[in-house]
Specification:
With about 190 residues, this protein is of the alpha+beta class. The chain has helices at about 1-20, 45-50, 75-80, 180-190, and strands at about 25-30, 55, 60-65, 70-75, 90, 95-100, 105-110, 120-130, 150, 170.
Length: about 190
């Protein structure tokens, strides 16, 4: 009974790791973090960065900042740079926001004047659909490889890039190269 429990625990752990490999954490603003753009010429730097990345459900954004905040707001509030009832608010200096569903997300700074100076961003999140592979034919020697996931988008198009920015980079939450090491570490559980 104990071995069955350990085997089930191992299988569940490996399943969760494999699922987690497909998620990415993006660091908004790179090493500079979530800041007010340094010049008016960079007022689209966050939208430029967002348009160069592909975001999908379960990905996360990490915002690092001091004496500031992050708000998720409606499109109208984004355009006016004002929100009295944000959909999400955080001011802890190290905010992680997870995309729960596909669609368009609008982020602004909650500090007066920062959004007007370009500290705002639109992110378009894609839905991933895995097409079902066709069953193998009885005459074929080997099944055909499964198709890669197809991405579809929801809602309005992403803004077009207008200025160069290197504000952020994707950070894998778990590298596929770490999976064998993880499995080796869990194997003793099966034989204990």
């Amino acid at each position: 009974m104990a071995n069955l429990f350990r085997s089930c625990s191992l299988l569940l752990s490996v399943s969760l790791i494999i699922i987690r490999v497909n998620c990415t954490e993006f660091e908004v603003g790179g090493h500079d973090g979530w800041i007010v753009p340094k010049s008016r010429d960079n007022d689209q730097m966050y939208n430029q960065w967002a348009s160069q990345n592909r975001f999908k459900v379960d990905d996360t954004l990490r915002f690092k900042y001091s004496k500031d905040s992050v708000l998720v707001v409606s499109e109208e509030e984004y355009e006016s740079c004002r929100s009295t009832k944000p959909l999400f608010f955080s001011n802890n200096g190290d905010t992680v926001f997870k995309f729960e569903h596909p669609g368009v997300y609008y982020f602004i700074s909650g500090v007066r004047g920062h959004c007007d100076k370009g500290q705002k961003m639109i992110v378009k999140v894609l839905a991933v659909h895995n097409p079902k592979p066709e069953p193998p034919h009885s005459h074929s020697p080997a099944p055909a490889p499964a198709a890669a996931p197809a991405f579809t988008s929801a809602s309005t198009p992403a803004p077009s890039p207008s200025h160069h920015s290197n504000a952020g980079r994707p950070i894998p939450l778990l590298s596929i190269t770490n999976l064998p090491l993880f499995l080796i570490l869990l194997l003793p559980m099966l034989f204990a």
